Amino acid sequence: MSDVKLNFPHxxxxxxxxxxxxxxxxxxxxxxPVPALDVAGQDCWPFAVGMIRVLDEGNKxxxxxxxxxxxxxxxxxxxxxxxxxxxxALDRRMLNAQRQGKTSFYLLCTGEExxxxxxxxxxxxxxxxxxxxxxxxxxxxxxxxxxxxxGQLYSNDLDPLGGRQLPIMHSARDYGFFSIxxxxxxxxxxxxxxxxxxxxxxxxxxxxGWIGDGATASNDFHSALLSASTYQPPVVLNVxxxxxxISTNTAVAKGKGETYAARAxxxxxxxxxxxxxxxxxxLAVSRWAIERARKGYGPILVEWFTYRAAAHSTxxxxxxxxxxxxxxxxxxxxxxxxxxxxxxxxGDWSEERxxxxxxxxxxxxxxxxxxxxxxGTFVDPKPTSPAEIFNGVYAELPEHLRRQxxxxxx
Length: 410
Description:
The protein is α/β, with parallel strands linked by helices and about 400 residues long. The protein contains 15 helices and seven strands. Strands 1-2-3-7-6 form a five-stranded parallel sheet, with helices on both faces. A two-stranded antiparallel sheet has the order 4-5.
């Protein structure tokens, strides 16, 4: 009998078990230094397997990365908190709408809000994100109109894409948000290509690619890293490690590797790992990584260590594969609560102001939602003209399509 046995990774706990994250090694807040902008891949091992954190257990900003940030204005942090609260309000309203049959599909960002909200606020006009789904936080922090965002989710006449994309697959070039692809991983190679074009044009812009932990198993992830390593374009490659790829625990995609950040080192690409539920750590590392890329020091990979508190999507039932109350057991807490407590400790916020802000933002989102729903939902559809299918395909409509449109009576 052979002694060879296959390894089958298991999640931290099954649905009938107590959540257990005791095997996660969490670096103390403030323990890692700020590397030089020109740091090489071979010097990044401590940053790739450790974890950059700024907020300590008492919600105080400590360490070299806090010093790198400097005295962040209270308005900047309050804006970040409002961004996350607005995202959470939108999630709440759109989940209800989907459950009411008003739209077909939605993906929540619950627990991951700090990453996109903090990163986007560090970008400049003309920079381009290449997102996967669950990055609508980038649009919220870019001040993208909620009417357009919701119109796309309802596929009504407020949808800037004219109903041509699955709900949640947004596209907003003017807001630095490239069209989402349903094929996971493609956005990584696209980001590298866009960054190469920026370098060739000398326009001073950068690209940012986004991928989930599960999709790092795709070929495109490795193709992008190889191209980035070879051509050294100005790109920030983000991995959002939220512990779950649909119903598959992150241990499957990670294999026996130390971290996702460590994978980049094999390509000679510098990489860091960050507490994605620490808004100040997100701000600091985003600012550093974006500056590094913009100043011509080449690509950088950032692994954002976080937790998907909600279901994968509205068509998913997480109780079938993960333990009850697992989100509450997550050792790095909730990003909204942590930033709130930091602001309160600074004397720049209060529980009363927080409750008021939550109510105001929920009301704002709800009022816009009512206006958008008046343009049509799945329950009360207001179909657009069939002639719309001929628009947005060709700059000049070919004669055979012109005839088909006429035969339809348009």
